[in-house]
Specification:
Layout: H1 2-14, H2 37-62, H3 66-80, H4 88-119, H5 125-143, H6 146-156, H7 169-208, H8 216-230, H9 233-243
Helix pairs in contact: 3-4, 3-7, 4-5, 5-7, 6-7, 7-8
Length: 246
């Protein structure tokens, strides 16, 4: 009985009564006058960082192999005529992981030259940004056609660059994207040819049999899927995409 009363006394002491005040956390936001220029500089830096983070996914995707990969995989789906199979989520997810696979050597260099030295305090922010951009610029420059680069340089009215370092990043990125779209459409054209041949053969057979009212894509779709599976189509497409960046 005494043990029960002791436990009840301890439990009662842990439960707040109506007369006891309960401390609740609060959050206060406000704008105050800056006392020193350093406070203004810090606020501006935070604003710039938040702005960069909001557009960081687009910057990372447009300066990597993602553009070519996702466009080619979309062409494969359209050429087979499977409508929404694979779904867009699968196409984008596969494109992202293939992009990470292709860009892993570049990001390893970025981590070695920029990220780790900055975390160790060996270099400052400006040096880390420069060291991180250089490997990405080298990758983009190697995949950019001279024709596209010359087009953007002429539009911008810049002088003809003598080396890669003379090409502005704001000019290199759109030139790289144009080159990626051009190569992706070239690969898409090659992908369409065998499926187009199957559609033409099936349409000719249906016309010769007098079945003009039967849509050829309905009959040709199983044959296209069978052909794609027999030749290991996904392996061929992914292998060709990865090798195209070497």
């Amino acid at each position: 009985m005494k043990r029960f009363l002791a436990v009840a006394t301890i439990a009662g002491s842990l439960i707040p009564t109506a007369t006891q005040a309960i401390d609740l956390p609060t959050i206060t936001l406000g704008v105050q006058n800056a006392a020193t220029p350093n406070e203004v500089s810090t606020a501006v830096q935070i604003l710039l960082v938040l702005t960069i983070l909001s557009v960081a996914p687009a910057i990372l995707l447009m300066t990597t192999a993602f553009v070519r990969v996702v466009v080619v995989l979309s062409f494969v789906r359209q050429a087979m005529g499977t409508q929404q199979m694979p779904p867009n989520q699968v196409i984008v997810g596969l494109s992202l992981f293939l992009t990470f696979f292709i860009m892993s050597p570049v990001y390893s260099v970025v981590n070695e030259r920029a990220v780790q030295p900055y975390l160790d305090g060996k270099i400052d922010q400006a040096q880390a940004l420069t060291e991180a951009v250089d490997p990405v610029r080298e990758f983009m420059y190697g995949q950019t056609r001279e024709k596209d680069l010359a087009l953007l340089i002429n539009i911008a009215g810049d002088d003809q660059p003598q080396t890669m370092a003379d090409v502005p990043t704001t000019t290199l990125i759109p030139a790289f994207m144009l080159s990626e779209l051009n190569r992706a459409f070239q690969i898409g054209f090659m992908i369409y040819i065998p499926f187009l041949v199957i559609d033409m053969v099936v349409a000719s057979v249906l016309m010769s049999m007098g079945m003009m009212m039967l849509p050829p894509p309905i009959i040709s779709l199983p044959f296209k899927l069978l052909l794609f599976v027999l030749v290991d189509g996904w392996g061929l497409v992914v292998g060709s995409l990865v090798k195209s960046f070497s």
